[in-house]
Amino acid sequence: MEIKVKFFASFRDKAGVPVARFCAGDVGELFKDVLCEYEGLQGEILDESESRFPLKKGVTVMVNGRNIRFLDGFSTKLNDGDSVAIFPPVGGG
Amino acid sequence: MSRKILRVDVKNDQIDVEEVSEDYVALGGRGLTSQIVFDEVDPTCNPLGPHNKVVFAPGIVTGTVAPTSGRISVGAKSPLTGGIKEANAGTSFAQKLAKLEIKAIIVEGGPVKSGYKALRLDADGAELVDADKWSGKGLYEVYEEIEEEFGEEIGIAGVGKSAELSGHNSGIAFNDMEGMPSRYAGRGGLGAVMATRGLKFIFVDDEGAPGVEIEDKQAFDRGREKLANALTSHDVTKPGGALNSYGTGVLVNIINEAGGLPHRNFSRGSDERASKVSGEIKAKEIEEREGKRPHRCSPGCLIGCSETWTKEDGKEPMGVIEYESVWALGPNCEIYDLDVIGELNRQCNDLGMDTIEAGNTIAVAMEGGVADFGDEGAALEMMDEIREGTPLGRILVNGTEFTGNAFGVTRIPTVKGQAMPAYDPRAIKGIGTTYATTPMGADHTAGYAIATEIMGVGGDLDPLSPEKAELSRNLQYSTAVIDTTGHCLFTAFAVLDIPEGLEGMVEEVNGVLGADLTVDDIPEIGKSVIDVEREFNKQAGFTKEDDRLPEFMREEELPPHNDVFDVSDEVLDEVLS
Q1: CATH number reported for the structural domain that contains residue A42 in this entry
Q2: How many domains is chain A partitioned into structurally?
Q3: Per the domain annotation, does B258 fall within a domain?
Q4: Which of B249, B259, B455 sits opposite A58 (nearest CB)?
Q5: Structurally, how many domains does chain B consist of?
Q6: Model pTM greater than 0.95?
Q7: Same domain flag for B200 and B88
Q8: pLDDT tens digits, residue range B475-512?
Q9: DSSP-based three-state secondary structure for B54
Q10: Which residues in chain A have their CB less than 8 angstroms from residue B561's CB?
Q11: Which strands form B84-90's sheet, in the order they lie side by side?
């Protein structure tokens, strides 16, 4: 089972790579592994003070193009070949 | 208040200075251009005929030290949509005009087919000077010549070859901080309205200008500080934040990942090749080429989302390539090379054209068989056709819908005749709701639902959910107010999340006007602006059937989410009713 994780904007710089591959059953499990592997991202993604949905404001996580806020959050199941995209707060237009 | 309105009639060589009527005192920017167009322009008139007028108005706080407030609004009846139009740009031109205490310029009369003039404004007055020598030339060369003749510090507004061709895709180009014609009030064909009045340029010199009068300095300073604090602390707008570091192009990847970046004339919402033209790649290239990033479109901007893009060897700077331009001239035409996109953008600037409309035009021309998708050389040749005024060029310069119809294309991504920006409404339905219902025609800036649907600013709503009437309405009203104050729309990222920032914006306005508005007044003020615009459109012949997206977007599924635009007509009708 392989999950493709893509980092964008400042998260790409902090991770030092644009893409990484992990094995995880859900998003929560994946994040534990990602933050362990890339120390530069610690403190950037999770808001430890928020118990219900501990993602920092403005941070976007998509699984196959769908924001996890509108899926099952950190319990969103992952399957082999899934793509997870992680963005810091961005704007424009 | 010592501000005044200039009324300019090139055909009769006349400039009148008028007092600001009581009805206009509390207005500026979009609120003022739309009200003047409503008051003075027959909604049924031919937009390029003698009864249309083009109106320039800096925002209420523009020209002060209010942060990120260098916006100029331009309004008229649009030849592209047939309805009312307001387009705005960030440029020092706006601030210079305001410092001269000019609340608005109304350009009327015509039509004029030759004998172009330039309007010169400075602290001593206004005059019309001959501008025929610049007719037919590219704007990069012309703006250099103008600065050599009139000084590097002047503000310039001008129209290019596209406007001289009466193209319905012709914008108004303002000079950037380097003097290049890269800051655009691009949408809706306002350039052709200006050119057919006989006016080619406006030059503004603010040396010795009195500046903007502030009625209540304490309120203004309090507001300025609150807004500045919000802009410099919000993750999107702060120094080192996303806009400052990567520019608007930072959106390429996130919208592509969300399945909402249109590729191949709105045929699919995602493509791996998009990463080649992302903001991350562009920022890296700019650094390597020693271009400029971050960069400001006008003095006093705290965000600094702009840039100066160059050719590969670091030469021939051309200004900013915005996210919308990257997309329109790139992925939507299946072009994934930033240097080609940069050259197409340069050609648009040089010809005086809106990049969103131009990119969509190239894409529908490709769909109509004029060229293959991805044919970079053919896209550049289309620009040559316009420059040379060939029959094909004269089709292309009239925009997406005109070109699509000319070549038998049925998948034409327009609303009210104006081409869609860089978000497919089948994947992000709130922005589609705005495209459909704004009086401006398809315009993302009219109610930027992307902020909430994709970025989580001002709340979180699922982009695939069709229930977006309230979101679009609230954003359209608040946007009309921001466009009236003269602040950049990007201030919304901060003020939607930080209440003190929004308070600050209102207090700045109170300071300039001596008013006592509150945050609670914002929806009603915004509604009053949009009500005027909708009434103009109604009198021009628009009905609710014009508040709809193209048929193919309601029937053709968009990969990767394979969804259609399923916002009901009833929901669309309740947005602004």
Answers
A1: 3.10.20.30
A2: 1
A3: yes
A4: B455
A5: 2
A6: yes
A7: yes
A8: 999 999 999 999 999 999 999 999 999 999 999 999 99
A9: strand
A10: 65-66
A11: B14-19, B4-9, B102-108, B54-58, B71-77, B84-90
